[in-house]
Amino acid sequence: MSDHTNCQVTFFSGENIPLEMHKARMVQRLHLRGVDERLAIITQAGNNTFLLPNRDVFLDMLTDSGVNAMSEAQYAAMMLADDSYAGSETFYRLEKTVQDFFGFKYFLPAHQGRACENILATTYVKPGLTVITNYHFTTTKGHITRLGGKVLEAVGDEALNPVSQNPFKGDFDLALLDRQVTEVGPENIAFVRVEAGTNLIGGQPVSLENTRKVAAYCQKKGLKLVYDASLLADNLYFIKTREKGCENKSLAELVREIASLMDIIYFSGRKLGCARGGGIATKGEEDFMRMRDLVPMFEGFLTYGGMSVREMEAMSVGIQETLDFHVISQTPIFVAALGEELTKKGVPVVTPYGGLGCHVDASRFIPQVPQDQYPAGALAAAIYLISGVRGMERGTLSEQRNPDGSEHHSPMELVRLAMPKRVFTLSQVKYVADRLEWLYKRRDLVGGLVFIDEPKTLRFFLGRLKPVGDWQEKLVAAFKKDMPSGL
Ligand SMILES: Cc1ncc(COP(=O)(O)O)c(C=O)c1O
Predict the structure, then answer these.
(1) What is the position in ligand 1's atom list of the atom closest to the CA of 63?
(2) I need a labelling partner for 302 at 20 to 30 A (CA). Which of 5, 183, 458, 487 fits?
(3) Are 293 and 382 part of one and the same domain?
(4) What angle do CA 282, 285, 289 make, to 5 degrees?
(5) Separation of alpha carbons 212 and 254, rounded Å
């Protein structure tokens, strides 16, 4: 697979335009509902963007999970799938792809990222044990705490600063890591987890240099090191373009070097590989054997792990395509384009622009909404209301309550406008920026939300909320005044 770095074409006009290095040959019809309809729809969905039917969404920027555009090679590979319960040729092809990609001998299939987390946590986490990570992910933490474990985070302070110049905000603070290990005691640590492209703090990457240091430290302390490679594609792009000394390394070399530092690597194939699946690779046989029997128990036989063979074929090709710089650059350059456009309009977003999506900073957008009324959730609902764009709350609503029932305030209140790979066009990006500019001008109208139905775990997925007061009706009236068509 080729590995060109010079795909950022310079425009004679001087404009910084992200150029698509692909063309669309299959398209999907979109629907843009009017603002009155959208008010009824978001109310029906309990002000939770997860509960919106896709037919009522104009631009689905909820996530990049399982909704990236697939390549013609991926679709072609799906036709060659070998459908058998045991010993499928498709599985052996996927296994070989993962082995070649990471340089690890052992591979376990699982139906998606959180299934890998379930297997990993069930195997290594016991009550009283701690997992130290640069930053948690919702489902990762859910599985660890479900099993009586504890999660500590070791990113530096800068990671939680929404306005920053630090190119690698996902890096571990090594002094903090050392303090945490000393306090907890290495014998009480299940594993240390490095999350590539840290999801919840704005898709911020981890540098190769920092990964090397964390690995050396873990080796010294006898700690198992686990890599969540779900967001590896974005992280690779940033290592290649931002990290000194890495610009001339091939993407394949970078992946192999990161992998060589780890004991276990798992990934969501909904992200890495642009299909729908997941898997765990291990360097050694012992870790493989400890986890192996849980695959038939929770996922399916060892040669499919809950995945359809067609998805496994697509994932196999998708993983190989991660080594094509054109493929991995599309999300970050479109995120940056949206970030730039919003910054020009004064809308507060997380900087540096990360992978995954553009992250709007609700704390600065609507400071009048207290954290107990979920500013990021309220802003996500308001964005849908005035644009039909579906983003995702990444703030206090996505946290679990403290054991005493009080709110666990998230250090950041973000609305993520995800940029699935190779899905949206520049005019759609401009539409998003335009509607957000309007909302920012009328931000005084936005109020908070309260739960009317709050699930006990991972409440952000299925919880239902209502607005505090009638701010949504007022926002709709203001929108119709400026945009009489209601669109
Ligand atoms: C960093 C990270 N880890 C794990 C997961 C879980 O993966 P899945 O959605 O496939 O269960 C995700 C999904 O968004 C993720 O971003």
Answers:
(1) 14
(2) 458
(3) no
(4) 95
(5) 12
Q: Are 225 and 195 in contact (CB under 8 A)?
A: no
Most ligand 1 atoms within 8 A of CB, residue of 271, 272, 392, 419 to mutate: 271
Question: What is the distance between the alpha carbons of residues 387 and 52, in angstroms, rounded to a whole number?
Answer: 14
- What are the tens digits of pLDDT across the range 80-101? 999 999 999 999 999 999 999 9
Look up the domain containing 205 and give its range: 72-321
Does the beta carbon of 410 sit less than 6 angstroms from any atom of ligand 1?
no
Per residue in 414-438, pLDDT (tens digit) is 999 999 999 999 999 999 999 999 9
Together in a domain, 252 and 332: no
31: number of Cβ within 10 Å = 10
User: Is 52 in the same domain as 186?
Assistant: no
Report CA(114)–ligand 1 centroid distance (Å).
6
In a domain, 26, yes or no: no
Final residue of a structural domain among 306, 321, 336: 321
CATH number at residue 434: 3.90.1150.10
Ligand 1 centroid–CA 279 distance in Å is: 12
- Locate tokens 């990762």: which residue? 140
Domain boundary among the residues 321, 353, 368 is at: 321
Output the six-digit token pair for 114: 């959180």
Long-range contacts of 461-465 (CB under 8 A, 24+ apart): 461/50, 462/48, 462/50, 462/51, 463/46, 463/48, 463/397, 464/45, 464/46, 464/47, 464/48, 464/51, 465/46, 465/47, 465/48, 465/374, 465/377, 465/381
Question: Which residue CA neighbors atom 2 of ligand 1 most closely?
Answer: 230
Rg (CA), the chain: 22
Largest CA distance in the chain: 66
**What predicted TM-score, i.e. pTM, was given to this entire model?**
0.95
**The amino acid at 485:** S
